[in-house]
């Protein structure tokens, strides 16, 4: 029991540290490409947190997929006892797709900015005129 | 260290303390570790393939796909639309006129015999077919096993990027996979999702809902076919998965084709545009 609680808090702390590192990257790194990388790390950490929240700390545990084609009520009852929550994975896949779309668009903008200004330094681009 | 840096550091520390407090004491994310299902999750797991309570079922033994395309179908529809808009935006940023495309094809002669070594090229030819088979398997079994349209489409997109790296961009275009073709495939996928969503409205004569999968009480709509003999089709989930597979695969192909335009060609185009503007 004690080791379970320790592991649980440890995972949360690791996720918090990664959050902090990615926020540092978004705010302080001047290179736009590094900002984008930090943003994707931030989104992935949030998704990991969501999956962790949806996990069931029991043994045995199974994914939310029934393995028989026409399950009887008995099988369904047994399945609900061991299966994890299907809602967080469903939310996470939506979040992944939208995060990917956002990353795609800002990457294209960054490439075009590099072609036009010859630099990816956010400080330099902000000072350019015309 | 300037004053601005100090503000940022203080804000970050405050944010982390708030987050830690919320997790540890307010129970926002469910400390201690979850041992029981939440009521909504229990509902989905109990009824998704329960053929004894047909009022609520989605005819899919895969919980995540059942939620994605049946219980919360509109979410996924708009998510696909967001991805589509992002691709439209990328094409708009990297737009090429007719002249620019001529410029692009001038480079074709120069890079004709370049590319990676013959070993890589040969292996790519073999693996290309395998990737397409695996991705189709992921997408077509989306309502039975882990995976689905988006995952299958992402796997499918590996095939063109492999060809681009091993041969060249022009090789992919010669295969008939131009940007415009891929963009039309992408649009066809999204339109198919819309049409499959509209089928219940038309067949239910106003008593069914948009993106409805299986029959509900009080509706004339008889539902998409769920079992054919012993084969589970998952109602409309199969069609949505196929359409999404096509849409995502083609969408990624557009992006990779745009990203693989040679840099010096783009530099030339931008310089010419600058001259015209002055």
Write the layout of secondary structure elements.
The complex is a heterodimer of chains A (130) and B (278).
Chain A: H1 2-28, H2 32-54, H3 73-82, H4 87-117, H5 122-127
Helix pairs in contact in A: 1-2, 2-4
Chain B: H1 3-24, H2 39-47, H3 63-71, H4 73-93, H5 98-110, H6 118-140, H7 149-156, H8 158-166, H9 169-174, H10 179-203, E1 227-228, E2 231-232, H11 237-259, H12 263-277
Antiparallel strand pairs in B: 1-2
Word description of this protein:
The complex is a heterodimer of chains A (130) and B (278). Chain A is an all-alpha fold and 130 residues long. Chain A has a single domain, classed as Helix Hairpins (Orthogonal Bundle), CATH 1.10.287.3510. Chain A contains five helices and no strands. The longest helix of chain A has 31 residues, at 87-117. The N and C termini of chain A lie far apart (64 Å). Chain B has 278 residues and is mainly α. Chain B has one domain (59-277). Chain B has helices spanning 3-24, 39-47, 63-71, 73-93, 98-110, 118-140, 149-156, 158-166, 169-174, 179-203, 237-259, 263-277; strands at 227-228, 231-232. In chain B, helix 6 (118-140) runs antiparallel to helix 7 (149-156). The two termini of chain B are 43 Å apart. In chain B, 35% of the residues are buried. At the A-B interface, helix 1, helix 2, helix 3 and helix 4 of A face helix 1, helix 2, helix 3, helix 4 and helix 11 of B.
Largest interface: A-B, 53 and 62 residues
Oligomer kind: heterodimer
User: What is the CATH third-level topology name of chain A?
Assistant: Helix Hairpins
Low-confidence stretches of chain B: none
Radius of gyration of chain A: 21 Å
Q: Helices and strands of chain A, in N-to-C order? A: HHHHH
Query: What is the end-to-end distance of chain B?
Result: 43 Å
Helicity level of chain A: over 70%
H/E series of chain B? HHHHHHHHHHEEHH
Low-confidence stretches of chain A: none
Read across the widest sheet of chain B, the strand sequence of neighbours is 1-2
Strand count, sense and closure of the main sheet of chain A? none
Proportion in helices of chain B: 55-70%
Counting structural domains of chain B, the number is 1
Number of strands of chain A: 0
Could you report the average pLDDT of chain B, rounded to the nearest whole number? 85
Principal-axis shape of chain A equals elongated
């Amino acid at each position: 029991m004690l080791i379970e609680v320790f592991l649980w808090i440890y995972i949360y702390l690791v996720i918090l540290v990664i959050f902090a590192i990615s926020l540092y990257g978004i705010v302080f790194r001047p290179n736009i490409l590094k900002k984008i990388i930090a943003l994707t790390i931030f989104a992935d950490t949030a998704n990991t947190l969501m999956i962790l929240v949806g996990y069931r700390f029991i043994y045995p545990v199974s994914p939310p997929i029934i393995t028989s084609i026409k399950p009887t009520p008995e099988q369904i009852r047994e399945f609900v006892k061991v299966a994890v929550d299907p809602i967080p994975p469903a939310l996470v896949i939506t979040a992944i797709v939208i995060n990917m779309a956002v990353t795609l668009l800002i990457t294209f903008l960054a490439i075009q900015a590099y072609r036009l200004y010859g630099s990816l330094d956010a400080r330099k681009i902000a000072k350019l005129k015309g | 260290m300037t004053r601005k840096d100090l503000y940022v550091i203080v804000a970050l520390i405050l944010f982390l303390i708030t987050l830690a407090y919320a997790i540890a004491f307010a129970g926002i994310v469910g400390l201690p570790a979850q041992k029981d299902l939440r009521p909504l999750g229990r509902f989905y797991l109990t009824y998704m393939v329960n053929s004894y309570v047909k009022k609520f079922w989605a005819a899919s033994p895969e919980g995540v796909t059942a939620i994605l395309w049946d219980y919360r179908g509109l979410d996924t529809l708009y998510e696909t639309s967001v991805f589509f808009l992002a691709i439209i935006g990328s094409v708009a940023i990297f737009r090429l006129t007719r002249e620019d495309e001529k410029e692009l094809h001038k480079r074709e002669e120069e890079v004709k015999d370049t590319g990676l070594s013959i070993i890589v090229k040969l292996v790519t030819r073999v693996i290309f077919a395998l990737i397409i088979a695996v991705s189709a398997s992921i997408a077509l079994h989306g309502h039975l096993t882990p995976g689905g349209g988006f995952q299958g489409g992402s796997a499918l997109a590996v095939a063109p990027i492999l060809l681009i790296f091993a041969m060249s961009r022009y090789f992919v275009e010669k295969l008939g996979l131009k940007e415009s073709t891929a963009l039309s495939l992408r649009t066809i996928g999204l339109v198919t999702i819309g049409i499959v969503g509209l089928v219940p409205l038309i067949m239910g004569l106003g008593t069914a809902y948009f993106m409805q999968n299986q029959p509900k009480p009080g509706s004339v709509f008889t539902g998409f076919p769920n079992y054919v003999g012993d084969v589970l089709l998952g109602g409309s989930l199969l069609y949505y998965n196929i359409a999404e597979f096509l849409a995502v695969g083609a969408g990624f192909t557009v992006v990779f084709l745009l990203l693989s335009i040679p840099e010096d060609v783009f530099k030339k185009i931008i310089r010419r545009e600058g001259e015209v503007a002055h």
